[in-house]
Amino acid sequence: EMIIPLAIGLIIARINLFSLAGLKWREKLLRFSEKGFSANLMIASSIIIMSMAIIFSKSRSGVFLLIFVFILFFELTVLYFGRIRHRQQGVKNFLKVSFLIITLISLYIGIDATIERFSLDKLLHEGRLIYWSNAASIVKDFPLFGTGLGTFASVYPAFEEKGISAHLSHAHNDFLEYLSELGIVGMLLLFGGIFFIVMKSFLIWRVRRHPEAKGLALGGIIAIVVILIHSFTDFNLHIPANMVLFTVVLSLTAVTAFYKSGEKRL
């Protein structure tokens, strides 16, 4: 989920899709190839392949957020890539074509099993609501400083309902789990810092003129937003590899958004 927005942002930055509008198709193909056709084709193909992988993983949050990624790119293109409509058209066309290809391939292969995962019965019988309720009880008993980082699996059994016995390593909600472990003080320090960096990067990104910096920073901002939204229903940020990647993306996004150097070239 973090890689797909980064890949889209990289395509936008490499080809400068903002300037493709108004060109003939032959000229667009030449522009696509002059920056390294094989590399661009590989990046575009990887976007489609990774999107397909999310769809067939049957992850409800993954499918929802995949659609959200394309919508967010589309809307931010309309809002902040210039008031002149022809500057927006290149990015919008790329997003439309990519989404159409993903949809057609998915329908051709078959997505019945994925759609079935969205049924109400599936949602009600997976236990997440119970996990969240029990995690909220931990927060209620340890509101300020929590139980300590990494203690959720050890503390949770004491808050389980009677008659229910299940080994739960994570709360399937990163925010609730961090809140139970770090308390309100720790949560404010951790996610307050993340929120500040993201918002500051976004505000700087809005006024940028450098096409490469703007494309790369947009991909990073959307990647961060997407993984944070997914964290409401899963424990992505408690997986070490994901947290390391999240930290790297957050740092590079801030650096790219603030990058100056004469606004010429990265």
Automatic annotation (TrEMBL):
Q: Where in the cell is it found?
A: Membrane
Topology relative to the membrane: Multi-pass membrane protein
Q: Which residues cross the membrane?
A: 6-25, 37-56, 62-82, 94-111, 182-203, 215-233, 239-259
InterPro entries in the record, alphabetically? O-antigen_ligase-rel_domated, WaaL-like
Recorded GO cellular component terms are: membrane
Q: Where is the O-antigen ligase-related domain?
A: 47-191
Where this protein primarily resides, as one coarse class?
membrane
Keywords tagged on the record: Membrane, Transmembrane, Transmembrane helix
The record ties this protein, via PANTHER family, to: LIPOPOLYSACCHARIDE BIOSYNTHESIS PROTEIN PA4999-RELATED (PTHR37422:SF13), TEICHURONIC ACID BIOSYNTHESIS PROTEIN TUAE (PTHR37422)
Full protein name: O-antigen ligase-related domain-containing protein
Q: Report the source organism.
A: marine sediment metagenome
Q: What is the lineage of its organism?
A: unclassified sequences, metagenomes, ecological metagenomes
